[in-house]
Structure formats: structure tokens, C-alpha cells
């Protein structure tokens, strides 16, 4: 796995470092795997392990739900089919960029992993797909602004947002305000402590090599461990890399090839 800085993750070197000799495939596949957290990276990992015949895994999640930062909230205790829901999570999956000066459109490769996953999951569900509806409000504050509003009381925060709605849309925003809302401040969520990883200069070189090594039989995944961070496809990509790492440590090279070939692991060469 590499970028302009060179290789970050070298599968062959990794395999050699595990000093594997011969492997009992059955024994390796029956290993018990503990998976911590229930976000996209972890759910993807369980799917990848299952796809190569490893089913002895167990997920431990600290909240009462899975999905992590992928979070949809229904307003007023309504049900999803009332369509009063609000996305508190990823909503942008850019697929192409258009350069106006040259009129050239280039595909962005990474989000294709998200669409590949949704195709696979829809296939597993017999293509029983819920029709998508528009979100109620798709906007959030980040950085200093997010920290400031998180410090407000719930009442003040809601009033501030309502005031902004009137500023943008006019008095109709007051007339149509039904009073239903939800509030999610990621930084003060005890299970998250932030909305996404945003590394500063130098931190990438400092942290990534450490993330890509197992410590005490532990492998680190999650969007923050990816060479390009903070997006859902990098949470998924980290699952591909983490699963690769685990399978290599177990000596399951054919299974690694299957995962890498199937799941667009374009940075990993095995
Ligand atoms: C407001 C917002 C907007 C975003 N917009 C976009 C977007 O437009 N496009 C995009 O691609 N991405 C977007 N993202 C990023 C995307 O949501 C994340 O990259 C992705 O969901 C991260 O998945 P993950 O598995 O790495 O981590 P998480 O989803 O954070 O999963 C971690 C899980 O671990 C659990 N946990 C924590 N501590 C413990 C513990 N001690 N024991 C057990 N479990 C624990 C947590 O409860 C959580 O369920 C956005 C994120 C936010 C918050």
C-alpha cells in the first residue's frame, strides 16, 4: 500500500515478518476473533472474514446500536416509514470531479467501494431496497464552530439554528417550524469524542506505520488508521487492510488474495 511517500503497507514483507512455515487452513479459519466497536470498519471486517469462511468472530459495541457514526435519527419517536428522519452522518459520496477550464470529468475511485458494498448487501437482502427519501436537514457545523455550539444549552442551540433558518429562508421558517429536532454533538459523545480524524502535518508519517503493525494480537482499523482519512470509504478500506493483516498473520494467503481482488484494495499488492 503506498502513496507518493512510498510504501505504507507491504503485504509480502508483512507475510515474511510473520515467519509462517506451514499452515493448517482449518485451524487458522477456526480462530476466535474479538472485534471491538460496531462502526462501518468493523461491520465490513465481519463481512470480509465471513466471506473467506471465518465465522468465529464476535463484535463488542459500547452503545446499544451498531453503525457508529452512520446514524439516522427519527424525529418525535416516529417510525422510518413516516419519513421524518434526519441524517446525522455521512451524506456525501463524490463520484467525479469536473474541471471547468478543460471541461474534463474525472472519476473519483475511492467511493466506488461504498457502492460496491451496497450492491453486495442489497444482493444478500434479495434486493429488497427501501425507497430513498430526501433528508430533512443536511447541514452541520465543524471545527471551532462545532465546539462553540456544543457548549450551548440545548435550548440555546436550537434557538440559534432556528434563527439561522429564518435568516436563510425568511419568516416562512418560523411559520412552518413544528418544533421537532434532534441534536448530535459528536465531540461530547462519550463513544466518539469527535466527528472525524483530521491529521496535522507530520502525524500521518508518525501514526500510520504504527497502526499498520499488530500489537499484542491486536490490529487497529477505523477511518483514522487509513492513509486517507475521515471518509467512510477509508473506514471500509481500513477493514480491507486490517483483514489482510490478520489473514497474513494466520498464513491464509489465498484468502487474502480473494479479499484484495474482490474489494478494490487498489493500494495492496499481494
Ligand atoms: C457529521 C458527520 C458527517 C460525515 N460526512 C461524511 C460524508 O459526507 N462522507 C463520508 O464518506 N464520510 C463522512 N463522515 C465520516 C464517516 O461517518 C466515518 O468515516 C465512518 O462512519 C467511520 O467508521 P468507523 O468504523 O471508522 O468508526 P465509527 O463509526 O466511529 O465506529 C466506532 C464504533 O466503536 C464504538 N466504540 C467506541 N469505544 C468503544 C469501546 N471502548 N468498546 C466498544 N465499542 C466502542 C462506537 O460506539 C462506534 O460504534 C462523516 C462523519 C460525521 C460525524
From TrEMBL:
GO biological process: amino acid catabolic process
Superkingdom assignment: Eukaryota
Ranges for domain Amine oxidase: 134-242
MF annotations from Gene Ontology: L-amino-acid oxidase activity
One Pfam family, short name: Amino_oxidase
Matches recorded under SUPFAM superfamilies: FAD-linked reductases, C-terminal domain (SSF54373), FAD/NAD(P)-binding domain (SSF51905)
InterPro entries given in the database record: Amino_oxidase, FAD/NAD-bd_sf, Flavin_monoamine_oxidase
Name assigned to this protein: Amine oxidase domain-containing protein
Source organism of this protein record: Emericellopsis cladophorae
Taxonomic lineage: Eukaryota, Fungi, Dikarya, Ascomycota, Pezizomycotina
